[in-house]
Design brief:
The chain is mostly beta strands. The chain folds into two domains: about 100 residues, Immunoglobulin-like (Sandwich), CATH 2.60.40.10; about 110 residues, Immunoglobulin-like (Sandwich), CATH 2.60.40.10. The protein is built from two helices and 18 strands. It has a five-stranded mixed beta sheet with strand order 2-9-8-4-6, with no helix packed on it. A five-stranded mixed beta sheet has the order 11-18-17-13-15. Strands 1-3-7-5 form a four-stranded antiparallel beta sheet, with no helix packed on it. The chain is elongated and about 80 Å long. The termini are far apart. The C terminus is likely disordered.
Length: about 240
């Protein structure tokens, strides 16, 4: 009997000790957002609660990268009070599985920092194959060409409104400017360096009707045949 009472007192004391002081608890530490298109934003509210018996102070909130913002509704919580932490993940420039972490630092003596996670997969609404073009070596005055495939992986029609280039020796030509879901089109990339072009490097820019990807950037690189350029300049 005395042994049982001793065990009960130990458990009671341990439970009391764990509740003593501020104690930060989170209803759900991980949010799985599934699959989204690159450029879309994930917005989620984490529920924080002070389950202790003393005021809780959230000293700071930090995210794993600048693509994820975190906003806390209240940094000081009395026992039993709750706060909301809004996490916003911007999926631009991401592709594939992602895990974004938010660190919450507080005066909880048992856990000075807790981690919250956003987890999911980012896919392109408009798939670009290949996403980067290498035209190889081109002589001044000659043309180099490549074909890029654009595929609408989304749920809505896509319209390409403009095709431009960041440098004068590059241009792009679209086979068609309207793509229904599942359809594809070809983008013809043409480079024609002149004798003053030392390096072939630039982007083809495509303006689209997509809300998640209003502009596509396709990198184009190559080399300019230096001996051929010198021959042209020496004529």
């Amino acid at each position: 009997m005395k042994y049982g009472i001793t065990i009960f007192l130990l458990i009671f004391c341990a439970a009391s000790a764990s509740a003593a002081g501020p104690h930060l608890t989170v209803g759900q530490k991980e949010f799985r957002f599934g699959e989204i298109f690159a450029g879309e934003k994930v917005d989620h509210l984490f529920k924080l609660r002070n389950s202790g018996d003393a005021p809780l102070v959230v000293e700071r909130v930090k995210s794993s990268c600048g693509c994820t913002a975190a906003f806390l509704s209240n940094h000081s919580l009395l026992p039993g009070e709750e706060a909301e932490l809004q996490a916003v993940f911007d999926s631009r420039r991401f592709q594939g599985p992602v895990v974004k972490t938010i660190y919450v630092y507080s005066n909880d003596p048992l856990q000075r920092v807790i981690q919250l996670h956003l987890r999911g997969t980012v896919v392109p609404e408009i798939e670009i194959k290949p996403a980067r073009v290498d035209l190889g070596s081109i002589s001044p005055g000659e043309s180099g060409e490549a074909t890029v495939l654009l595929i609408n992986r989304g749920r809505n029609d896509i319209v390409f409104s403009a095709v431009t280039a960041t440098v004068p020796h590059l241009k792009g030509e679209l086979a068609t400017r309207d793509l229904a879901p599942g359809e594809k089109t070809e983008l013809r990339i043409i480079a024609r360096p002149d004798q003053d072009t030392a390096r072939l490097s630039g982007y083809i820019l495509l303006e689209t009707s997509s809300e998640s990807a209003p502009e596509l950037r396709i990198a184009v690189i190559g080399t300019v045949n230096s001996s051929a350029r010198a021959a042209v300049q020496n004529r």
